[in-house]
Amino acid sequence: MDDYILEMRSIEKSFPGVKALSGVTLSARRGEVHAICGENGAGKSTLMKVLSGVYPHGSYGGQIIFEGTECQFSSIRDSERAGIVIIHQELALVPHLSIAENIFLGNERRGSGGLIDWHRAHAEASELLDRVGLREKSTTPVGQLGVGKQQLVEIAKALSKDVKLLILDEPTAALNDTDSAHLLGLVRQLQDQGITSIIISHKLNEIEASANTTTVIRDGQTVESMDMADDSASIDRIIRSMVGRDLESFYPDRVSNPGEVVLEVQDWTVRHPVQDRLVVEGASFTVRAGEVVGIAGLMGAGRTELAMSLFGKSYGRFISGRALMRGREIKPRSVAEAIDYGMAYVSEDRKQYGLNLLDTIARNISGAALPKLARFGWVNQHRENRLAEQAMEKMRIKAPSVQSVVGQLSGGNQQKVVLSKWLLTGPELLIIDEPTRGIDVGAKYEIYQLINEFVAAGKAVVVISSDLLEILGTCDRIYTLSQGRITGEVPVGQATEENLMTLMTKEKETVR
Amino acid sequence: MTTMAQRTDKPLQDPGGSGSSTLTELRLALTRNLRTSGIYMALVALVVLFAVFTGGASLSPGNITNIVLQYSYILILAIGMVIVIIAGHIDLSVGSVVALTSAISAITVIKYGMPWWVGVLAALAAGLAIGAWHGFWVAYVGIPAFIVTLAGMLLFRGMTLWVLDNISLSPFPSEYGVIASGFVNGLLGGYGYDTFTLLVFAIGVIGFAVNEYRTRKTRRSYRQPVPPLWLFAAKIAAVGVVVMALAWQLATARGLPVVLIMLAILIMAYSLIMQHTVFGRQIYAIGGNLSAAALSGVKVKAVNFWIFVNMGLLSAVAGIVFSSRTNGAQPGAGNMFELDAIAAAFIGGAAVTGGVGRVVGAMAGGLIMAVMSNGMQLMGIDQSVQSVVKGLVLLLAVAFDIWNKRRAGAQ
Known about the structure:
The complex is a heterodimer of chains A (512) and B (411). Chain A is an alpha/beta fold. Chain A folds into four domains: 1-83 and 164-245, P-loop containing nucleotide triphosphate hydrolases (Rossmann fold), CATH 3.40.50; 91-161, no CATH class; 261-342 and 427-511, P-loop containing nucleotide triphosphate hydrolases (Rossmann fold); 354-424, no CATH class. Helix content of chain A is 34%, strand content 27%. Chain A has a six-stranded mixed β-sheet, with helices on both faces. The radius of gyration of chain A is 25 Å and the shape is globular. Helices cover 75% and strands 1% of the residues of chain B. The model of chain B is unreliable at 1-20 (pLDDT under 50). The chains are: A alpha/beta (512), B mainly alpha (411). The A-B interface holds A 311-312, 314, 334-336, 338-339, 345, 347, 352-359, 363, 366-368, 370-371, 374, 377-379, 381-382, 385, 389, 400-403, 421 and B 8-10, 218-219, 222-224, 276-279, 281-282, 284-285, 288-289, 291-299, 351, 355-356.
């Protein structure tokens, strides 16, 4: 009865140790705008990688039916030939090449003798730019354009491939309001031209305004698919579907006993290091001794940026704001100074920002506290090894010895090494960004226990996470962050996944 | 002892290894230490090989002394170079810096008639200034070291030609020559051999043995795999025999070269700096993971700056030794030295991506190049063939390193 351009039937996909997708079903009607919602880690990106052939046929279970025939893509080239084009959040453009060169990259317009016909390329590029409403010359280098315009170039590139199904992964995450509105308008225009779009987005207002159908995915499964024209479809219903599951009891109990204020941040504003936009805008919050404070925000909300800019200005360009520790204003200009003030920041990406994978456990653990362990610049290796041994025992790091190389440990053990490293600096305030990303349940429990022990000793912890269950399970008080602004402060007793998600997706205009 | 080594070393454990023969043990110990000890075994093998090919001429007292004198400045450069490489950089300018610093020394001493030590100080000061220049551009402006030092290579070569007016300067006063060609001899009397030389080497061997034993004890107390005692003893004995044989050859030649004392002090000092000081550790941290180091409070810019200052200083030391040995300054001095120093570091196990490498390894790498060049010269092999062989050795050494790492990663 319905004319479906795409049907994905009970798609399953496993990675070693993790089942990312366990039976996702998705049906997109021809010519509609179809939104996919879900928490971080729900499996949206994995699903799109299955669809676009990044994970080749055979590496997943289930069926993909596109335009009435079953597809068995073995690469992105295959899916693009069929008319499916995916535009990732991180744009795949070459900044030094011109718009036309980017549009036809890998798909060059050939003239006689196999040479590229640049006249034809530029003429076609200009037509495509008209279609997407971008008033730029096709010879302009892409690097000179803003992110919003680059997004349009990506769409023009997709159009040049005779796209039938356009997939946009978080298209407006990095865009300002005007650019977002323009982009969504363009998607509706393309709809009139018969191009079906799938939009993955966290911005529920935008979804409500532009999608015909919304499919919600949670824990690798389709929860529901709703027709947005229906009266029952609403932002609230989407949120309920996104988060509705039982709070599992794998969070250790803790008696909360908040004391004096350890960290107070006032009107903290930070600009993106290169782009002209604010990533954190007027954020104010407090953290007390003996308290775990959560900062909940979706990807791109500015969580990490807020933490790193506080941690010795290691991110972005500082605009304004004050930070006070134990009532005294601090102005750390470098990470070393932030450490001296008693701050510690555990990054969300331990391999990239936390560890030297080539070196031993002992040397990684001592890494941040090295100046404190040394006398006149001379490291007492015996003491270093002994402290590392103690940390290993306390943290239950499973490894042959402190001299084992960190790169060979499992994710959970690596995370414990990073935590040990920061605890060794003797911090007053521990900021943990995504404390349990990519580690197994057992190690998660142990890390929550360590957090509890730390605050029980009168120290303070900030947990940054996009996992609401984790936030609810570990924190005493929760701040929600959306588009760089703090949109709410909720004591854990009053917090539910629904009201947090509502605050986390609250947009700029409604805050004002 | 045996159970100790096996229990703690699971990945390499022989499945039926409870009653394994000494042969299996030896094989295990060798596999385990291949990455670190392979280079030393290769060095020994080359020494033996060339001793056979040259009918023992390569091991004659005169020739051994000659190798030490001839390659000392490359080894000095390699110390600085391996540090630069561990931090993830490269320095292409050291040959030109050697030329410029030796020219400055020569001008001070020969042209202006200053005492020899003023020349030495002038060269060292110039080296520090050049290092600071490189460090500034690399660390604070953020230009890749490859570009900065490529520019430096041209820049300082040009300045050398300029200050020397394109002609050689010589000779130095005889005191200056002592640096590179002097010997400590007869200090404790000679009996056809120099007792002092033997004594110094014996102390060195004992120090090495004590240090190795302490390392072994520490490793065991941290439940680290250690080779079986007999293998450990055999290793110490082998090193002792080789070193004392070398000492004997030196003692029966001209005694203990001054430059060898200097080199030994530099090697020990820099090994300690790299392993036991905050500065050294931070160099490994920067090379291993720059972002993680920065987020751990390492002052990346300052560390990078001082790495290049140090390279400049050691280039000046090499420049002084070189000018002392050649008894003057030449416009073309130090040509291609950077490549020998870089090759020494990589053959000695430094990783191209940074974060891995050792001063002692670079010394072994430098000696491999030295023994090969010297041996081929003694055999009268054509310069062209020598260059081909050296190139292949460098390539194979790094290929072996990559293969070895991939194998370790697959485990």
